[in-house]
Write a structure and sequence with these properties.
single chain, 612 residues, four-stranded mixed sheet, three-stranded antiparallel sheet
Length: 612
């Protein structure tokens, strides 16, 4: 009995170890599942917030950058009207840029990150005003404010920018109308040095396969992977939230993803519930096994004490030794049989233990395979999600083009109906015209001009019919008007001939006038030089008829020995004498321009005064 109890205690110890190991493993799985569940819940909450933002951005794209962003821009505009800003802040920067290729939205969004919601100010006073507006309007985290002087032109980045023949830089992939926004992104993110390569394998080959392109610091794939020359990082998000073009498609994708996540959450809850039940069951088995082991150990201790007491007690001499020997042999046989049974049970237990260890190893291998399959399934899910996105995008495009096709078909039917009506109208009009004139005449005028002429004639006929004057009176007025028209035409011809004659006469007069002006100028120069020569002076007069200017130069003394000088360099007497000569030379070609010249000889010496 003692051996059985000890064997039972050993078996219970093994069971307790197994239960404890199983409980520990389940608790680890429970902790791991709890972490995964927390990650899933955070992802669901983030997707719900993103979905709410997308739903709100249907009518206002600004809400993609924050729920209070429209109110913030309204506050900035109000402050600008009040003159509180020296230069109006720009932002959010992501709202002021647009993509040339929509497929690069995720890459650009991962590249710019928080700069999409950032604002930029020209000076610190404007920054203080903007911070006060943000404190009034925004709740929660505030956008970054970048303070830098506003410049009217975009930085010249030709010397330091990457220029790849096949792949654009972030600066080349964006349409930025405001140079302040472009300069801010260049200064704080270096977008002129970042390449955008759609295929991640090609991006790694370009950046890590050898020498990277000149001036290139990093590259981004269309999936948001960030690749450096010596390392790379995966994106934290799977799609663009702020720069995506098709809002409806993003909303549908988010709704599908939320449905998948809710289903995954339900599966998590079921797995967690089953795991909790299994853990509770194992803990109950562990408690029962522990209690059973305790009871067994108590029995073993009690039997050991009784055995010790029996060993200490002297047995009385048996009268019948033969009976005792028979009992002893029987007991020895029982012990031998029990020992053999014990050895068999021990061997069986060792075999079962080996089987258990093998099963445990196989279980661990299966778990590793399951983990690997789960990881592969995650990648497959991502690819499936992308495929679903492409399918939905194609369905959306198909629906859009089907609608356009139906609209075009409806338009074609309407145009065919209109064409049929017009053909019937043309046939009716041709029939009427044939009744009036059997021969169809070809015209070069457009249909529009003919319609306007027909309408004009209809109005004229209607007006004439309303007036209903006498036919003879109308004919008489017509002949009078025709005669008046002929007279006026003849007068116009005569006037045109007279005007042509006047034009030729005026041209001849202008030519004669130019010749006369040239002769008078030469005569004036001759008289001026003759009068100066009486005193021994020499001079010149330069007429500029085009600019209506006259330049006079006089040189006292011998003309051949000195250069001509300007009038301002002469003395008072010389200037007075030259002025008298100029006035007299003008009298020779025109009427006296001066009625009176008083005290003209004030500065003259006696010789000049006598000659004058």
């Amino acid at each position: 009995e003692l051996d059985n109890l000890e064997h039972q205690s050993s078996t219970l110890s093994q069971q307790i170890d197994q239960y404890q190991h199983s409980c520990s493993r389940m608790k680890e799985e429970q902790g791991k599942m709890r972490k995964e569940f927390d990650v899933l819940r955070r992802s669901i909450e983030a997707n719900k917030r993103t979905l709410d933002t997308m739903m709100a951005s249907r009518s206002n794209r600004l809400r993609r950058f924050g729920d209070q962003m429209p109110e913030l821009l309204s506050g900035i505009e109000e402050a600008r009207r009040k003159g509180q800003f020296k230069h109006t802040p720009r932002g959010p920067l992501g709202y002021l840029i647009s993509l040339k290729d929509p497929e690069l939205a995720l890459a650009v969004e991962v590249c710019l990150k928080s700069l999409l919601r950032a604002f930029t100010c020209d000076n610190y006073e404007d920054e203080k005003v903007l911070k006060s507006i943000m404190a009034k309007v925004l709740r929660g985290p505030r956008p970054t404010i970048i303070t830098s002087q506003f410049l009217p032109r975009v930085h010249d980045t030709r010397r330091r920018a990457v220029n790849h023949p096949d792949y654009p830089s972030v600066l080349q992939a964006l349409d930025i109308e405001d140079p302040v926004v472009a300069n801010c992104l260049i200064d704080h993110r270096g977008i002129e040095c970042i390449l955008l390569i759609k295929n991640r394998t090609e991006a790694r080959r370009v950046m890590q396969g050898g020498t990277p392109p000149a001036h290139c610091t990093q590259a981004f794939s269309k999936d948001g992977d960030q690749i450096y020359p010596n390392r790379s990082y995966s994106a934290d998000q799977s799609r663009a939230n702020c720069l995506s073009g098709d809002v409806e498609e993003e909303i549908m994708h988010l709704q599908r993803e939320l449905e998948n996540q809710n289903a995954q959450e339900a599966r998590f809850m079921q797995q967690k519930k089953k795991l909790d039940e299994d853990l509770k069951q194992n803990e109950g088995l562990l408690r029962r096994a522990s209690m059973e082991q305790k009871r067994t150990n108590d029995k073993v201790t009690k039997l050991q004490l009784e055995l010790t007491d029996l060993k200490n007690v002297e047995e009385p001499q048996s009268d019948d030794v033969r009976l005792l020997e028979e009992d002893l042999l029987e007991i020895v046989e029982k012990i031998s049989s029990k020992r053999s049974e014990f050895e068999e049970a021990k061997a069986q237990m060792a075999s079962l233990k080996d089987d258990y260890e093998k099963a445990e190893q196989e279980c661990q291998q299966h778990k590793d395979r399951i983990s690997t399959i789960v990881e592969e399934a995650d990648s497959v899910k991502d690819e499936l999600s992308k495929a679903d996105q492409e399918v939905m995008k194609c369905k959306h495009h198909k629906k859009h083009y089907d609608e356009k096709r139906n609209a075009h078909l409806a338009g074609i039917k309407n145009l065919e109906a209109q064409l049929k009506r017009k053909e019937e109208e043309v046939e009716a009009s041709v029939a009427k015209a044939t009744q009036i004139s059997p021969d169809r005449s070809e015209v070069s005028r457009t249909a529009k001009s003919l319609d306007s002429e027909i309408n004009r004639l209809k109005v004229k006929i209607s007006t004439q019919q309303e007036q209903q004057e006498d036919r003879e009176e109308v004919v008489r007025q017509f002949h009078e008007a025709l005669e008046s028209y002929k007279n006026m035409s003849q007068q116009m011809k005569n006037l045109n001939s007279f005007i042509k004659c006047l034009d030729s006469v005026m041209i001849h007069r202008l030519q004669i006038y130019a010749d006369l002006r040239q002769f008078l100028s030469a005569r004036c120069k001759y008289y001026f030089n003759s009068m100066l020569a009486q005193r021994g002076y020499s001079g010149s007069m330069a007429f500029d008829h085009k600019n209506e200017t006259l330049s006079i130069s006089v040189q006292p003394g011998q003309g051949s020995k000195a250069d001509l000088s300007d009038m301002r360099s002469l003395s008072g007497g010389e200037r007075s004498f030259s002025t008298v000569c100029f006035v007299l030379s003008l009298w020779a070609i025109t009427e006296a321009p001066f009625r009176c010249l008083d005290e003209f000889d004030v500065y003259m010496d006696m010789v000049n005064r006598r000659i004058s």
